[in-house]
Specification:
Elements (H helix, E strand, L loop, with lengths): L9 H8 L4 H22 L3 H18 L8 H10 L3
Helix pairs in contact: 1-2, 2-3, 2-4
Length: 85
């Protein structure tokens, strides 16, 4: 039986991203985009700035995710949003 990507854990998806699996990345993006946007908007109440910030966070995850040990994806993403200069 094949599992749907949306049924996989964050850790399973991260392992797939380390192997350049774009569908796994898209699944994480869809899973967390709106939550991260709401978090960013509380800090920076500007739609365009928040969208760019979230884009940058996900771009960094895609480009550097294989080089970083991430224990909790949700925590990693929220910290990334909150610590952007």
């Amino acid at each position: 039986m094949t599992r749907n990507l949306s049924d996989l854990t964050d850790q399973e998806l991260l392992e797939m991203i380390k192997r350049d699996n774009q569908p796994a990345f898209v699944c994480i993006y869809r899973r967390y985009w709106s939550e991260l946007y709401r978090c960013a908007f509380r800090i920076f109440p500007n739609q365009q700035a928040c969208e760019e910030l979230i884009h940058d966070v996900f771009l960094h995850l895609w480009e550097k995710g294989r080089d970083v040990h991430i224990q909790s994806l949700k925590d990693y993403l929220y910290i990334a949003v909150k610590t952007v200069p």
